[in-house]
Structures are given as C-alpha cells and as structure tokens.
Amino acid sequence: xxxxxxxxxxxxxxxxxxxxxxxxxxxxxxxxxxxxxxxxxxxxxxxxxxxxxxxxxxxxxxxxxxxxxxxxxxxxxxxxxxxxxxxxxxxxxxxxxxxxxxxxxxxxxxxxxxxxxxxxxxxxxxxxxxxxxxxxxxxxxxxxxxxxxxxxxxxxxxxxxxxxxxxxxxxxxxxxxxxxxxxxxxxxxxxxxxxxxxxxxxxxxxxxxxxxxxxxxxxxxxxxxxxxxxxxxxxxxxxxxxxxxxxxxxxxxxxxxxxxxxxxxxxxxxxxxxxxxxxxxxxxxxxxxx
Amino acid sequence: xxxxxxxxxxxxxxxxxxxxxxxxxxxxxxxxxxxxxxxxxxxxxxxxxxxxxxxxxxxxxxxxxxxxxxxxxxxxxxxxxxxxxxxxxxxxxxxxxxxxxxxxxxxxxxxxxxxxxxxxxxxxxxxxxxxxxxxxxxxxxxxxxxxxxxxxxxxxxxxxxxxxxxxxxxxxxxxxxxxxxxxxxxxxxxxxxxxxxxxxxxxxxxxxxxxxxxxxxxxxxxxxxxxxxxxxxxxxxxxxxxxxxxxxxxxxxxxxxxxxxxxxxxxxxxxxxxxxxxxxxxxxxxxxxxxxxxxxxxxxxxxxxxxxxxxxxxxxxxxxxxxxxxxxxxxxxxxxxxxxxxxxxxxxxxxxxxxxxxxxxxxxxxxxxxxxxxxxxxxxxxxxxxxxxxxxxxxxxxxxxxxxxxxxxxxxxxxxxxxxxxxxxxxxx
Lengths: 290, 429
Known about the structure:
The complex is a heterodimer of chains A (290) and B (429). Chain A has 290 residues and is mainly alpha-helical. Chain A has a domain at 37-86 and 131-254: Orthogonal Bundle (Cytochrome Bc1 Complex, Chain D, domain 2), CATH 1.10.760. Chain A has 9 helices and 6 strands; from the N terminus they run ααααββααββαββαα. In chain B, strands 1-2 form a two-stranded antiparallel ribbon.
C-alpha cells in the first residue's frame, strides 16, 4: 500500500516537472532567444600585468604599494566613498609610526559634540576614530550623486567576484562605447540602439555596462607619490586596488602564514596516524598472497 | 545491547572502581566507542563519515559559542559586529572562517554519510530507526545552517531569508499569515534576526540530543558493513578501540588537511560575494542563491514553472519538502533482502544514474534561473522522484542479486573455519 501511494506521488511530481519541461521547451523553440548588450559585451575582470604581490598562497603585501594606495584613496576616492570599517590606528600595519598615524588622523575632521554647547560639530580625528564618511547620511550621498549612493569601500574587494582584479579593471576600463569591441565584434554594430544614459559612464567591466561613477583616475600625476613612483593611471589603479584588498582582509598574510604552520603540523600528525593505523591493523588484515 | 563476546569494562584502580559504582560514565564510553563495542572488521573508508560528522558538530558548537560572545543580533549593528570579529577580536578571523566553512564541510560529510547509506541500504531492517533519526538530524542541520547564514546580515542573508520564508506564503489561505508569523513582520528585520539567532544557538544542542539517540539506536543492532551480511561470530568483528579509533584518527587527519586548506587559503570560495554587502531591503541582488549545500533542493524548487491545477510555486514548495521527506519512507520502498549495492547489479546501475542526477541538480541549483538550466533541472527533478518512488521499489522486487559471502570473515579472509550456522545470527540484546 505504502509503495502504491509513493509510486503515485512520484509519478505526479515527475509528471508535473515534465509538463513544466515541455512548456519551457515549447517556449524556447517558438520564441526568439533574447540577446542583451550587457550579456554579450561584459568583460571579465583581470589583474595588472604580473599580478598583485599578494596573489597566490605565499603572496605578501607590498607595504610601499599599500601606502601609495592609501594616498590614492585619500586624495581621490574619499571625496565620495566612505571606508567605515577601517580605523586610523589600523594604518600602523602599513608601516606608519604611532606619531605619523596620530598626525594623519588629525588632518581628518570627524563628527563630534561641542563640549560646551552639546551641539553636533566636527573635531580633528584621533587614532581610535574610523575613516569619516564624506556625506553626513545616505540621503545627502544620494542627493549629491544623481541618486546613486557611492558604496562603502572597506569590503569592496570581497564583495565582488575576483574583487582585487575587478577594482583594477573597473578603474582602468572606462572607454568609448562608439569604438568598443569584444572578440572582433563591435558593440554599435551588434546593438545599434545601445546608449549610455546621461550622467552614466560606459565601462564594460561593470555588470550592466553603464556606471554612475565618472572616471576617477584620468591623468598621469593626478596623485604625487612620496616614494617617487610614476603615477600613471594603471599604477594608481593597481595601488588603490591593493590598498582596498588590505582594507577588506587586513589579516590576509597573517592568515596564510598561520595556515602553513597548521598544514605542516597536520601533515605530520596524519602521517603518524596512518602508520599507527597500519600497525594496529596488521594483525587482523589478511596476509597478502605471495 | 551488544554481542555476547563484547569485552567487559573492568575498572583498574580504586578510584575508577569508586566512579564505576557511583556513575558508570567510563563504562558507558567504553561500551559506546571503546573496546567494549565490537564492530564489523571489514568497514571501508565510507564508514568514517559518522565520526567526522560528530566532529563537525562539536567544531561548530565550540567556534559558534565563542563567536556568539562577540556578535550582536541586532539589524543595526550585526553586519558591523561580524567585521569587528574579523578585524579586532583576537583570532576572530580564524574562528569565523572555521565556523562558516565548518558548515560547508559538515554538509559535505553529511552528504557522503547519507550516500553511503543509499548505496549500502543502511536504512534496512533492523536499522530503520537509525535512518529515521538520521533524516531528522539532516533536517535540523538544514534549518540551523539556513538561520546561521542570515546572521551576518549581508545581502544574501536578507534575501535568502525573504525567499525561504516566502515559500510558506505559497500555502493556500494561511500562507501569508504563516510567513508574517515566522518573520515577526512583513519582511526580514530585527525581529527575524533575533529569533533566528536564538534558534541558531538552540538547534545544535537539539541536534546533539538526536545524535545521541542516533548512536544509541546504532548500538542495538551494531554497525552495518560493506557486504551487508550481519555479524555471525566473534571473528567477524574487532573492538572499536583501538581498531576504528585509529582508522578514524587517520580519516580525521585527511579531513582536517582539506578543511584547513579552505579555511586558511580559500576561506571565501564557498561563500557569495554579495554577503559582504550589508543587507539592503531596497536593492535586490541579480541572482539570489542559497549556500551550495542547498543547491539540489533549490533546483527542485525552481523546476516547477508550470501551473497545473495548483500554482507552480506551490508545486515547487511541495516537491522540495517531499524530496527530503521521502527519505523517511526508504526502509519500506526498497524491498530487496540484500543490503549492499555490491551484490545488486541492477540497483547499482540506477544508483550511479541517481548520483549523476544529484550532480546535475547541484549544478543547476547554483546556476541562474534561465534556460537551458531550468529545462535540465526539470528532467533531473523528474528522475529524482522516479528513482526513489518508482524505480527503487520495482528494481528491488525484480532483480536477482549476486550470491552473498557466508560471513564477513569469509569475505575478508576467503574462508571462515569457525563459523557456526545459526548461532549469533541475531545480535543479543
């Protein structure tokens, strides 16, 4: 009885699933498949030539690069993007001394309370403060940016697939849609109706190809590096992508170093466990025939 | 609850004698996972996953309890406290990655454990109760994992909670009120987050309780084995300790190596990047997908796209729940007197097709809801139900199994000199 009921239930579920299949197959056969520009002309993110210093299981931070990236963030990105999960004290990990961090923090204005009147005001930052947001709230951020709120950058490289490469590709990927081609096919020939709306900017690395952010890195020397590195656009993009990888995962290198120690120990222990197992079982395993 | 030749616990010192009289806990452990539990001598490595699943549960509870000390289940700050754990708590990043990936590895181990059961028909008499309790554990794990994924309050947390609780709204008449009741509101919010945290903390201990029942039920008939032939005499078994503690120790080492490679080198491989974006009720992610371990069932849910008498959504919900609940019926659907798939040639072919079918469902569950994935998942869904509810009962009735070895000893050594027909064919209780 139970098997008859079960078989009937199974046939019903399978039948309805197959009905849905034939319905889907009919639709697929009778309707033109839809093409879309963002589906066919989207580019996969790629890293800078030679990759990042922290790529691979033994990769490490390039401290000088992270310092340069901080400068790019401070002078360019921070005009619109917050970095709310990073505190000034964290910058000591980038090779700055306590005094340097204190001085850097003091150059930033953070929200505070007037000790005399209790009214909201601003005060110079301290090492324990977090990077301040460029806007007092989300409404102000939306109002200043054509309704597109600039996202917080603290976790950006973990919040996108291949995030470090994505940030680098996006920053260097702004181009003219009129001449853009992929695999020998021109966007304007395949999709003559394609337009980039006013206030948006064409970027093939962005999901729907049209991005609300104007190209932020436009000219060589836009940032003056303290270490004399030539500030080309790809260089600045690489440096800030590296910096944002650090802000998203500050423990990255520590994590891998711990991991190597753990793996060496586990390998050793597992080899021991294997031989212990072999020895214990030796008596009850059938003898191998010669 | 064991074989007559099981070794008896003998306290060695005055102190252990004293303990044994007052509270025989050492005796209990000795009989459960010590030398006092005789186990078939021919278990292969597929029998490692029960112990590994137990290890995963303990790992999740230990890391989870410490994480809970630093986490706050409040929609305003939850996302921030997770980042606080990652950045400011000593070894917080390691605990969180161990816990998040621990859930994935827990499910990996559970799936292998369950598929071991499918192939060797571990669910058959006299072990039906072990199987039923196992399915209960699996369901509880799914609920716990789902609620745990909501806690970081990222985009996938929020939208996952919305989609999964939204399933209940497909129920006619009472669906909407049930969804509102589950969430404590019309959309996931602080009330939902709080109750999910509370339940996420509670359920692992409920699981631990059912695990105790699962092992208790196991110790009555004793473990099954790859031949599916019941234990007949002492030469068929070895004591759990040291034989299987040593074997499980090695298995645990291999498991930990793979687990630690992921935790320390690829900790976000199994997660979704969108969950590093704070929950935003106004912005829907392009593709809402659950964690990978729900993919096959998510594929079944989405396979029903055609209104046939009932709404397509309701079909999907019914099918998804049925796809797991039907496992409860397995002991009665599979009628073959032979347990092990090694001796069931026809069953073996369909089992292989079923494994491939599950792999297809896995793939489709993670793919975007567009063609051809939906059509593929519809075929795979149909086979899933046909396999369990139609093919398995028929195959088990008509197939002619291969001859079984007389005993486990014969299967291992080629002959069984001491075997006594009839005696000990039923385990003593």
